[in-house]
Design brief:
The protein is an alpha/beta fold. The protein has twelve helices and 16 strands. Strands 7-6-5-4-8-1-9-10-2-11 form a ten-stranded mixed sheet, sandwiched between helices.
């Protein structure tokens, strides 16, 4: 295990967390808060009502989001599944430990494939502080038992290890099997996975136990395959495009589950002292999801691939009914939870995020981040956002792009030629940051998929031209 030390900034956060209450920490309840992270899979920016969806019904999510803070610029640390989850759970850029690719798809992976046990997860630190911990749903940061939830600080696990799963719980491989702790769950005990995961979350919350809890609920919805029950299909019958209608039903199932969880918190008198965070692991998938008005989709470092639906609630502690304009990132959740729990970060962890609690306090106009980084497949693609400028070294477009997100939030106009000095500065910043990372521990098909998609785009656009103009059609 490589040794790590605090940065000065993290030390400052530790002292703050130990000596002061979080913003508006309740005067009558000084118990550490319960914490629930609800993570969806491939959910598009505009697939929830609180971000403007008009076709998909998400009344529970919309109501709960309005009780808290909706992040207008909420990012994740990677544009697709496994690396993004590794970053969220560790509070560190996953490139630090070589986890910037999806896990290999074929066969069983060994203990060296996945987030290394040396990396401290939120669950491990909170468990040491007396929290009971539960993981439900999709794991996808390690298939081997040595890197599954029960080996990473979780007391309970109900879910599957791999990246994809049908919604009826039918096992296809040892990886694509539903487990309760170390035991495979019989098919007859499962119904529809989104409902099963929601019901399991309610069961976990309802356990008679005086200890605070940390629940990581990672739905596999609305990731493919497109499966839904009649109940949820009926709620999307107004959508005439079949693929979008089934997708909407899958999102509606998540919303129904979140409603059950909220009701359980209220019934048990827990809501006022429970932090709930909702987000997606990356931007919406290419088919059926809606990332508008953002450009791009899952797998890309355009905003549509890394900017996600994202909110936090903590009634009575964080003022609600508002949006927050400054960029935040999923890496911030780890230090936020630690400060809320009154816990100093472990000396074995050097976190890349920052606690959001001081920035969400009334009157604080400072920004949590001055610069953010993204890396796919060891630098095959990368991006840097520093204040209003965003650099994107895109293999998809075969060039380095620059956008001014204040003037052009939807990344329509590349201004790289106008600001060569900004390109140089941001590339230098990326190089310095990347020097602290390591090479990917394994690779995935993302580079090949990106190039094939780029070729397919150009072929499709070329076919739209009059035949005489097709020769010489160029990328733009």
């Amino acid at each position: 295990m490589r040794s790590r030390i605090f940065t000065l900034a993290l030390l400052a956060l530790s002292l703050c967390a130990c000596t002061t209450h979080p913003p508006q920490l309740g005067q009558t309840d000084h118990r550490p808060p319960n914490i629930i992270v609800i993570l969806t899979d491939d959910l598009g920016w505009a697939d929830v009502g609180f971000n403007g969806a008009t076709d998909i019904l998400t009344p529970n999510l919309d109501r709960i989001a309005q009780q808290g803070v909706i992040f207008e610029n909420g990012y994740v640390s990677h544009p697709y599944c496994s690396p993004s989850r590794a970053g969220l759970l560790t509070g560190r850029y996953q490139a630090r430990f070589g986890h910037d690719c999806n896990l290999p798809y074929q066969g069983e992976n060994g203990a060296s494939i996945g987030t290394p046990p040396a990396e401290r997860m939120i669950s491990e630190v909170l468990k040491e502080q007396g929290y009971r911990t539960g993981a439900i749903g999709k794991w996808h940061v390690g298939d081997h038992p040595d890197v599954q939830p029960l080996a990473q600080g979780f007391d309970e696990w109900f879910g599957f290890a791999g990246g994809g799963m049908n919604y009826w719980g039918h096992p296809t491989t040892p990886i694509k099997t539903i487990y309760r702790n170390h035991t495979q769950v019989p098919e007859e005990e499962l119904s529809y996975l989104t409902d099963d995961f929601s019901d399991e979350a309610v069961r976990f919350i309802s356990q008679p136990n005086d200890a605070p809890f940390f629940l990581y609920l990672a739905y596999n919805a609305p990731h493919a395959p497109d499966h839904a029950t009649q109940q949820y299909l009926d709620n999307a019958q107004h959508i005439e495009y079949g693929g979008r209608s089934v997708y909407a039903a899958m999102v509606n199932a998540v919303d129904a589950g979140v409603g059950k969880i909220d009701s359980a918190l209220i019934a048990h008198g827990m809501k006022e002292n429970t932090i709930v965070v909702f987000l997606s692991d990356n931007g919406g998938r290419k088919k059926h999801a809606d990332n508008r008005p953002n450009r791009g989709h899952k797998g890309m470092l355009f905003e549509g691939g890394i900017k996600v639906p994202f909110f936090i609630t903590w009634p009575g502690h964080i003022d609600g009914q508002r949006t927050y304009p400054h960029p935040v990132i999923s890496l911030d959740l780890f230090p936020t939870f630690l400060q809320a729990a009154g816990t100093a970060p472990s000396q074995e962890a050097q976190l890349d995020g920052t606690s959001l609690l001081p920035y969400l306090a009334a009157g604080n106009e400072q920004k949590p981040h001055q610069i953010m980084f993204w890396r796919s497949v060891g630098g095959f693609e990368y991006a840097v956002r520093k204040e209003n400028f965003k650099l994107y070294k895109s293999a998809y477009k075969d060039k380095t792009l620059l956008f001014d997100l204040d003037k052009d939030p939807y990344e329509r106009t590349d201004i790289a030629d106008q600001f060569p000095e900004v390109i140089t500065t941001l590339n230098q910043a990326y190089t310095q940051w990347d020097a602290q990372n390591i090479e990917p521990g394994w690779v995935d098909p993302h580079p090949e998929n990106v190039l094939l998609e780029a070729q397919d785009l150009q072929k499709t656009r070329r076919r739209a031209l009059p035949r005489v103009q097709r020769e010489g059609f160029s990328r733009n």
